[in-house]
Every structure is written in C-alpha cells, then in structure tokens.
Amino acid sequence: MRWHLGRIEVFPIKAMDGVRVDEARITPGGILENDRVYSIVDSQGRFVNGKRDARVHRLRCRFDATFREVAFAVQGVGGEAQFTLAEPGALNRWLGDYFGFDVALKLDTKSGFPDDREAFGPTVVGRASLQEVAGWYPGMTLEGARRRFRANLELDGDSMPPFWEDRLFRAPGELAPFRIGEVGFVGHNPCQRCVVPTRDPDTGEAIHGFQKEFMEKRRQTLPAWADISRFNHFYRFAVNTSIPPSEAGKRLRVGDPIDFP
Predict the structure, then answer these.
(1) 153: which residues sit within 8 A by CB, 6+ positions away?
(2) Is the N or the C terminus of the chain less surrounded, counting Cβ atoms within 10 Å?
C-alpha cells in the first residue's frame, strides 16, 4: 500500500506521556480508547497541563498493558512511584506534593478530555511533516518532534510529501471526510498550537524564538493543496478531526490504508 497509518499513540492522562499501540478501538464518544480519558485538575476544576505549568514536562509516566496501573517519576530524580488508577487517592497526593497545590484525577472513558469539543477526535500528522519540522531546529530529532506535538495518528508511506495531511481540511465551514482502514473521519482544520511545542519535552526549557521561526518556515513551505484561508496565522500544524457516532466499536490498526477522495 502506498500511504497508510504508520503509528498510533494514545495519551491516557491528558498532558502526560503517550503510549504507542498497534491498534485502537473507537469509543461511543468518538475518541481512541484510552486516549486522554484521565485529566489532572486543581481544586477549581481547571486542567493542570503544560500550557499552564511547565513543571508538567518533567513528569514521566509508564502504564501497564491494561492501562490500570501507572508509575510516575520526576525527570532526573531516581525512583518511581506506583499507583492504581481506579483508586487515585495516593496519586492525587503524590501529584499534589509535586505541584504544591491540591489536584485530583478525573475519568471519562467515553468522550475523554479533548481540547476542542467540536473537533474532538484524534489529531493526524504525517511522518514526513514531523521530519521536516525537526529539521528547522538544530538538534531536534523525529522523536523529539513527536513528543512536542503529541499527535495521535501518524501517516506514512512511499514518497508521502511533508504536510500531505493539509489535504484533510477544506475551506471555512466545510468538512473533509476521509477513511483510515474501516474508520470514517471528518477533517476540521489545521491545529492551532500552544506554548507546549516550544519547550523541551523532558525539561520544559523553551527554544528562544521557536514560534516565530516556526511560523516563517510554515509559511514558506505551505503546500499548494493547503487552503490558505484556514491560516489566520502559521502557527498551525497537524489536523483536528472528529469521528461520527456510526464508527463506534471499529478499530484502527497500524498499516491501515488511507482513503481520501
């Protein structure tokens, strides 16, 4: 097959480390199973994430195969702490001690905690696009770009050009249907990025001038097939999607072909 789904990554706890999987079921709420189904919130119910607190970047976490257990550690500090997600009291206390304020773990297995309640589905990007962006910054690797931009679905294949995924959205007010394997999607828009990609995913240290450099390079390399009317600015990368209710229960698998009209 020429172009296909090359990688699936889910982020069980919003803003925390991802997990690479070979397949993912679509939930009734239109998300990938186990993707951003947990969130960390403060006492006012506000998300605790990298946009708000750069200390999030120094937290490492590992999940067991069932996504029921998690081990947390602080980057550069020895030792891990093990927790059961179904009984989050101990984890809440550990995270509260780390941040210095009360937090709680929330769970929504159906719809999760997306940033965008309209384009609530997985984010889609091309491997070639990530490689292109990594090349804009000295020392950045493909894996480093992945960890900065945190896309769920990575497209790949012979001669797929950078920013091919910009075909998966249309003019304002229009949606772009496409399929990956048996699952139908709707493409909404190019994803507006936040402060998170500017920071080292391990330390939280920012690259000076990252956003300005990104916007200029993105403008220079915008492909002919991208609808420029969707770019009120050029700090946009990857594509926001939604998945219709009809697709619930279907599965995405690495290697699935892309079907785009």
Answers:
(1) 5, 7, 8, 122, 123, 124, 125, 180, 252
(2) C
At residue 63, the 3 state secondary structure works out as strand
**Domains of the chain by start residue, with CATH:** 3-9+24-32+113-259 (2.40.33), 38-107 (no CATH)
- At 143-166, the pLDDT tens digits run 999 999 999 999 999 999 999 999
pTM: 0.96
- Is the separation of the CB atoms in 260 and 168 below 8 Å? yes
Burial classification of residue 44, based on how many CB atoms lie within 10 Å of its CB (0-12 exposed, 13-18 middle, 19 or more buried) = exposed
Q: 78 pLDDT band (50/70/90 cuts)?
A: confident
Q: Which residues contact 216 (CB under 8 A, 6 or more apart)?
A: 234
Q: How far apart are CA 70 and CA 61, in angstroms?
A: 7
Q: Between the CA of residue 14 and those of 44, 96, 113, 114, 115, what are the distances in Å?
A: 17, 16, 7, 8, 10
DSSP-H helix ranges across the chain: 89-99, 127-134, 142-149, 210-221
Residues 10-23 pLDDT 10s = 999 999 999 999 99
